[in-house]
Amino acid sequence: MSDVLNKTEEIVKKAKSLGADEVLAKTTFGRYRQARFSSNQTDITVAWNDYVTDVTLAWKKRLVATQIHDFQDVDAGLKSLLQLAKVSQENPLFGGFAKGEFKYATSKADKKLEELENPTDYISAAVEAARKEAGAEIDSGGILFTRFEDVYLVSSEGPVGVDKRSAVELSIRAFTQREASGHGVECSSALKDFKPERAGAKAGEIAELAKNPKAGDEGVYDVIFDPLIFGSSLAVWGSMVGAFNVLIQMSVFVNKIGQKVAPEIVTMRDNPGAYSLSSRVFDDEGVPARENVFIDRGVLKGYLHNTSTAKMFKTETTGNAGLVAPNAWNIELDAGDVSKDELFEDVKKGLYLTNTWYTRFQNYAKGDFSTIPRDGIFLIEKGKIRQSLKDLRVSDNALSMLGKIAGISKERQHVHWWGEAEPPSLSPYVLIKDVHLTKSK
Amino acid sequence: MEEDIVDYALKYAESKQIEYAEVRGQSQVQDRLMLRDGILEAYVSAVDSGFCVRILANGGIGFASTNKWTREEAKDIVDLALKYAETAGRRDKIVFAKEKGIETKWTVDQKRKVEDVSPEERITEFVEVNKSLASCGVKIAATIFQCSIDLISKYFVSSEGSRISSFVPKIGAFLFLTVAEQGKTEQAGEQFGYSGGWEAFKEWNITDKMIHDAKILKDVITKGKTVKPGNMDLICGPEVTGIAAHESCGHPMEADRILGREMSQAGRSFIYKGGPYWLGTRIGGDTVTIVDDPSLEHSYGYYAYDDEGLKARRRFLYKNGIINEFLHNRESAAKLGTKSNASSRSINYDREAIVRMANTFVLPGNMTEEELVEDVKSGVYMKSFTEWNIDDKRFNQRYVGREAYMIENGELTHPVARPVIETTTLKFWSAVDAVSKKAEFEAATCGKGDPAQGVPVYTGGPCIRLRGVYVK
């Protein structure tokens, strides 16, 4: 047992000896590196070193938490945390932390990402790939981010685990004209699978196609969603199957378990697999993280849970624990049986959307929302891209869009992007029928 | 916070070949509580403390931070930041607009210190809000309440001689409710924020505001009519005026965005050199003056000195309808040949300070709210909003009303269910012909940066009247 794991265990024992009923301690040594660039040049390179132990304890169904940054400073922190629990209020629905001893898969984290000191080298590969597609005059910007975490978790209820988590991602947006841009991302848990030039080529290809955009027309369209923008939709649905969001009515899936919410071609799952930016072997209660199908051939099978929400819904935890709310780790939409090209061929007149931002809801329970496509909006006629468009907004409903999925490509991409495609996902090209688009008047 | 380690890190950085260095230590006492349906889910209390170094060398910038307070760690992060700066390999060398060092201390006063308010009292206050809501005669399907308290101590030093210490307590709350009536739901969220002590809680009148929202949502479900789409007059209440000022004036006037530094995330701006809009271009009516002002005492976005150590002041962004002054930090100011106006903010020691708004609002005019309404034959009064968004050049925006009323012959007649204005920045601000003299502020968290840095701000302002805009 490592020294850090020992010290993490000591925190748990100490808290128990002070009177806590249940205790969870998770120590994370995080090493994060980022390079930001714009106008094809590095603006800043950043390093963060973070050392923290998250301690959560329960005392008579009162749940409190704190952070400890220094193992020398444990006693005072735990005493005041327990004192806080004693003046806090009981949550009768608190279901305790996960119990039992678990065997975990071996982490497949990439040690090279721990040793990588200067991540700027990968940026030029992406910029050059974008230039190859769209010419030397492009204006590009983005980020290259790496993460390596050592995680040590000890629970008074049995789970003890060590994990290593690594990630590398590149995001590049390339402009060929003031209002013509393309965006590409490349995401991986390991350097060996990381190809920054793929993101650059995608950004350049879209930016080239996006030249000379015309204002689009309001209307109802059949729309092909690129994996990046569809990652934003998967993030919405993935968040809404979190049991806590169901409890607080921030979900279109309230009271819909067992009901058909999508066509039969739709199977959606949460999977923190080894390839994913969210790869992990256990959740924040020490339950083995696993694959969970939540929409099976169009039928809503269940929600994502921690131990407490699982008890409320009379089921078992799905290994998605956060402190209060369960989280989706990495959403996957199962691949379809048509190619991307065949999907385009199916569209007589429609749109191809590549990225979006600023998704906002009027009412999460009902699902009415709008979002603003960017980085390449294209008119499709007879299966071909005919015209670059601009200034359109998707103004529709999250549940009805899920129900109107009409085609899914075989090709899928692991995507994640700032603010929108979060959590990450494995996302195909998807055709959705009758999507409402609006514009400024 | 160990100020001697901050000083040590700067001294060590100054011993290297640098053009500029700064070290910022920050210690943040953080309290968070969350209640669902009036029951406490969890209470989190922690201290986050660390320091960062930013170095300008060889025309590049390097930044590194740590939460380990040792001299060895200080040396390591200085070395790392310096290496990053030196190896940036930029064609265009970055410079910072020149400034003199400042030595000062500043704090925000608390009438009732939050440290003196027990966790029990904090919890009880929110439990009582929920009890009042539960008995207000509206069917509440769900509530979620969050309260945050941050006691922020900073110590900033720079190679130009700045030594600035500060202490700011910030209190925030977010309440979200779902009303279910007649088999339909409506939802509302309210944010509250203040720089100062627990006196804020009483001033917010949370209970009254949430009961008002619950009743309004019930009215929308039971009495709301849809608007017949067409051109009409629109009166925007402070909440709607505020979000429009924030989104379609504050953000596009951020100089880093104008220069492209945020292009991959929050985007660029419809304002750019050589384009149709620049300093001196008309963007709105004569009555439209929008300022960003960090110096409003006790505002959620208050600060006396920014995170580059410059004294804060009011900025006139749109002045009498003309694009007047961008928001700058020292890097953007140098690129555009001007001085910083102290708009550089960071949310914590582990984040680079970037160009941010503070409190953005339309300056009040000279009319009463009643006078604005009296002169409308047919229109909509949109008091608050639900869904909103704007494109990444900050030109095409949409606001959907939450509390809204039809106006007929100068009178409010009946509730309107979710009226929508979807228009451009130019059309929106050009349509404004009158501004009320009374202003109300709203707390918000402004998003920008990668990794994300949500900073506290005020929006809000007066009521404004727009003539002949398309509402649907």
Could you explain the architecture of this structure?
The complex is a heterodimer of chains A (441) and B (472). Chain A is of the alpha+beta class. Chain A has helices at 3-17, 74-87, 112-115, 121-134, 196-209, 227-240, 243-247, 307-312, 340-345, 398-403, and strands spanning 22-38, 41-59, 62-68, 139-155, 160-177, 180-188, 214-215, 219-225, 268-270, 292-296, 299-300, 331-333, 349-363, 368-381, 384-390, 393-397, 405-415, 425-438. Chain A has two domains: 3-209, PmbA/TldD fold (2-Layer Sandwich); 214-438, no CATH class. Chain A contains ten helices and 18 strands. In chain A, the strands form two sheets. In chain A, strands 3-2-1-4-5-6 form a six-stranded antiparallel beta sheet. In chain A, strands 8-13-14-16-18 form a five-stranded mixed beta barrel. In chain A, strand 5 (160-177) and strand 6 (180-188) form a beta hairpin. In chain A, helix 4 (121-134) runs parallel beside helix 5 (196-209). The model of chain A has no long low-confidence stretch (mean pLDDT 96). Chain B is of the alpha+beta class and 472 residues long. Chain B has two domains: 3-223, 2-Layer Sandwich (PmbA/TldD fold), CATH 3.30.2290.10; 230-471, no CATH class. In chain B, strands 1, 2, 3, 4, 5, 6 and 7 form a seven-stranded mixed beta sheet that branches. In chain B, strands 19-18-15-8-24-21 form a six-stranded mixed beta sheet. A four-stranded antiparallel beta sheet of chain B has the order 11-10-9-14, covered by helices on one side. In chain B, a hairpin with a 2-residue loop joins strand 1 and strand 2. Chain B starts with a helix and ends with a strand. At the A-B interface, strand 1, strand 2, strand 3, helix 2 and strand 4 of A face strand 2, strand 3, helix 2, helix 3 and strand 5 of B. Strand 2 (41-59) of chain A pairs parallel with strand 3 of chain B, so a sheet runs across the interface.
